[in-house]
Design goal:
The protein is α/β, with parallel strands linked by helices. It has one domain: RbsD-like fold (3-Layer(aba) Sandwich). It is 26% helix and 17% strand. The chain contains 4 helices and 6 strands. It has a 6-stranded mixed beta sheet. Helix 2 packs parallel to helix 3. The longest helix is centred in the middle third of the chain and has 12 residues. It starts with 10 loop residues before the first helix and ends in a 10-residue tail after the last strand.
Length: 144
C-alpha cells in the first residue's frame, strides 16, 4: 500500500499510467467488452467503470491540446442517448476540469481502443460503460 493513492489503482494500472506519454491513450471498458483487443489488458473485476475512472483521474492529466481528449461509445441506434453510466463518467470528468466525452460510433470506438496503450477491463455490467482517455502533460511547477 502507498499513502495518498486511491486503493483502486493497482500496481499494474499505476505502472501503465506512469509509463504512458503525452497523447497516449488508455481505455476503460465494461465487463462485456471484448478484452482481447489492445496491447495490454489490466483487469479490475468487481469495480464499476465510473469508480475506476475516478481513481485514474486522481493521477492522470487529461490532454488539453486536442479538441476531444475523451470519448465514449455511442449507443447503437440512439445517437443522442446518454446512458446513466456515461452521465456518471461525464460528471467525474467535470469534477477534474475535463470536458465531457464525445460519442464515437461503436466500430470507431473499437478501432480507437485497439491503438490504446492499455485497456482496463472493469466489472461494469451496465451497457456502454466504456471511455477512452488521452493523457495530457504535467506543467513545470513555475508554470502551473
Amino acid at each position: 500500500m502507498l499513502l495518498g493513492l486511491d486503493p483502486v489503482l493497482s500496481p499494474d494500472l499505476l505502472h501503465a499510467l506512469a509509463a504512458m506519454g503525452h497523447c497516449d491513450r488508455i481505455v476503460l471498458v465494461d465487463a462485456n467488452y471484448p478484452g482481447t483487443r489492445g496491447r495490454r489488458l489490466i483487469q479490475l473485476p468487481g469495480l464499476s467503470t465510473p469508480r475506476v475512472l475516478q481513481a485514474v483521474l486522481s493521477v492522470l492529466p487529461i490532454d488539453t491540446f486536442i479538441a476531444d481528449p475523451c470519448a465514449v461509445m455511442q449507443v447503437v441506434g440512439e445517437l443522442g442517448a446518454v446512458p446513466p453510466v456515461v452521465a456518471e463518467m461525464n460528471a467525474a470528468l467535470a469534477k477534474h476540469g475535463a470536458k465531457p466525452a464525445v460519442n464515437l460510433e461503436r466500430n470507431a470506438f473499437y478501432a480507437a481502443a485497439e491503438t490504446a496503450y492499455a485497456i482496463v477491463q472493469t466489472g461494469e455490467r451496465r451497457f456502454y460503460g466504456n471511455i477512452l482517455l488521452t493523457k495530457g502533460v504535467v506543467a513545470p511547477e513555475d508554470q502551473a
